[in-house]
Amino acid sequence: MYSSAVLGRPRRKSLDELIHLVQQPSFAGLYRRAPQMCDAPGHVSLRLLEVAPPKSRYVRRWRRHARRCPSCASLFHYLGISLEG
Q: In Å, what is the CA distance from 10 to each residue of 7, 23, 56?
């Protein structure tokens, strides 16, 4: 058996270390999971939303849709784009 240091993988954290990390304010920003992308027609694309300027026509159009669609709203919240505007 090789240790994790030999294999180049980070060591797994103990429960005490994880609890300490969760209490830090930066934890949610660093370790949050990306929401599930819905690549179906009629839903916003995460890839295009990432690169579009916040005041672009693309964002304005999908912002109206995201107010009614929870999956698209989660993408807006993930990227920090307001649904009001």
A: 9, 21, 41
- The DSSP-derived string for 9-42 is PPPPPPHHHHHHHHTSTTHHHHHPPPPPP--STT
- Rounded Cα distance between 27 and 23, Å, is 7
What is the rounded CA–CA span in Å between residue 55 and residue 43?
19
Is residue 35 within 8 A of residue 75, CB to CB? The reply is: yes
DSSP label at 46?
H
Which residues, 6 or more positions from 11, have their beta carbon under 8 angstroms from its beta carbon? 4, 5
Give the pTM: 0.61
Nearest residue to 38 via CA among 28, 29, 30, 49: 49
67, pLDDT greater than 90: yes
Neighbours of 44 (CB within 10 A): 23
